[in-house]
Amino acid sequence: MQENIQPPILTVSNLHKKFGPSEVLKGVDMVMRQGEVVALIGASGSGKSTLLRCINRLETPTSGTIRFRDSEISGSDAGLDLNQVRREIGMVFQQFNLFPHLTALENVALAPRRVLGMAEQQAEKEARELLEQVRLGAKADSYPAELSGGQQQRVAIARALALRPALLLFDEPTSSLDPELVGEVLAVMRDLAREGRTMLVATHEMGFAREAASRVMFLDEGRVLEEGPPEQILEAPREERTRAFLARVLNR
């Protein structure tokens, strides 16, 4: 496939992250190329969220390097444009973090106006298109309190897309949703995967990993224990720890 011969969009090398005496990431290595969808799986506390937050630079790595395209983004904040990093590396969180006093349309249009300097009319036009893309065109004028959790998360996805990021990070985006609302969010994420979006998704949704991911990485106690195509990792993992985790989450 074409993306396999392209240079990496993201390279993480020997990444460590400590919080006081607790080491959460213990030498993570990973490479992503344009158009890949990588599902990051592992038990709660394995370091998935911390890894995403380091890539997005919401956390500063203790040591190791993160390269995004041709630039190292893991060094000192001095001389690093964190706003530019977060513009190109979008993130969707477990909690939706929408502004309650703004409509869905206003939530999506805000960043393009403030960050990209886009004219209000153009920002609104693109925001409407993004809301249509996440299947919420009819809810453009609704406030977050008038939306279900699944709808709010889809607005949050549209908001992340509004800055036209090259890489999208998802931090367990369905974990705070009622079970009946999970499917509508995963459907939008599958659409993005089919479009060729580059996505790193921390998730407990093994069905999504199987169907939409080009690769699955199993993170265990701050280390990548194994990675490979979904059918290999989910059906025939090499490591006993991976097998035990999957047996628990898949009830098998």
General description of the model:
The chain is of the alpha/beta class. It is 37% helix and 25% strand. The chain has nine helices and ten strands. Strands 6-7-8-3-9-10 form a six-stranded mixed sheet, with helices on both faces. A four-stranded antiparallel sheet has the order 2-1-4-5, covered by helices on one side. Strand 7, helix 6 (179-194) and strand 8 (199-202) form a beta-alpha-beta unit. Helix 3 (104-114) packs across helix 4, helix 4 crosses helix 5 and helix 5 (149-161) runs parallel beside helix 6 (179-194). It is globular, with a radius of gyration of 18 Å.
Any key phrases for this structure?
252 residues; globular
- How many E-type strands? 10
Derived from helix and strand composition plus strand pairing, the structural class reads alpha/beta
How do the SSEs run, as a string of H and E? Answer: EEEHEEHEHHHEHEHEEHH
Helix content: 25-40%
N/C terminus separation: 33 Å
Major sheet characteristics: 6 strands, mixed
Ranges where pLDDT stays below 50 over 5 or more residues in a row are none
Shape type: globular
Give the DSSP E fraction (strand runs of 2 or more residues). 15-25%
Taking all Cα atoms into account, the compactness measure Rg is 18 Å
Biggest sheet strand line-up: 6-7-8-3-9-10
Mean pLDDT: 92
By DSSP (H or I, 4+ residues per run), the number of helices equals 9
